[in-house]
Specification:
The chain has 268 residues and is an alpha/beta fold. 40% of the residues lie in helices and 23% in strands.
Length: 268
Amino acid sequence: MTVTSRHDAWHAGDSYDSYMGRWSRQIAPRFLDWLDVPVGLDWLEVGCGTGALSGAILVHGNPKSLLAIDSSEGFLAAARASVPDKRAVFEVGDAQALALDAASLDAVVSALVLNFVPDKQKMLAEMKRVTRVGGSVGFYVWDYPGGGVAFMRAFWKAAAALDPAAADLAENRRFPYCTPDGLTALAADAGLTTIACTPIDVATVFKDFDDLWHPFTLGAGPAPGYCVSLAPDAQERLKQKLQDSLPYRGDGSIHLTARAWAIKAFVA
């Protein structure tokens, strides 16, 4: 893994699911309720990952069709396995250059992807381009600047206490625009109109410390990527530092929260 990648390894579907996918599955139906798109339409999901939002679209959105794209074949394989619905097609695709005709879809959405795309403006412009007039564009990202993902914030706080350079790798410093104002401005710059933003909060409950720690050892994502880059003794020190910092209930479970910011807009 190169330094320039900032440990952004998003290729192993099962590893990602353990780390973030399980929480995205909680947010997805709430996002769709808020998006409030009519049934029977043609959808596109940009950056489908392991299919958390895809599955929710098929259940809650009742679409005519769903095309879901991702740059990772590993993620697509996991999505196909978890979402065996004939209305859904999963294909390799580039969020910054969608291989689709203009104005060909009714609803275009994305979950937890925008901040990892090199040219965010191009991605949103492409999402707008392929959406029909009157159609909906929506996306959500974690509230990184606000520390909205408590277990992630706890990890980086422990890491920075042992290695001050780790603070520069944390998502709050890397993605400062993941705020209502920042995301609304990105959507407006892409030509979207009638833009709305809302927070979506979910509980992140871990049955014990191992349930929280193990995903960090799998390498999928910035924090896990940093974790697996450490020498064994350094990783053990980080594990202990994090373990000592968390709130536990009587049964050993850890109850935290996560917040995402969601954006919806229309194509005029």
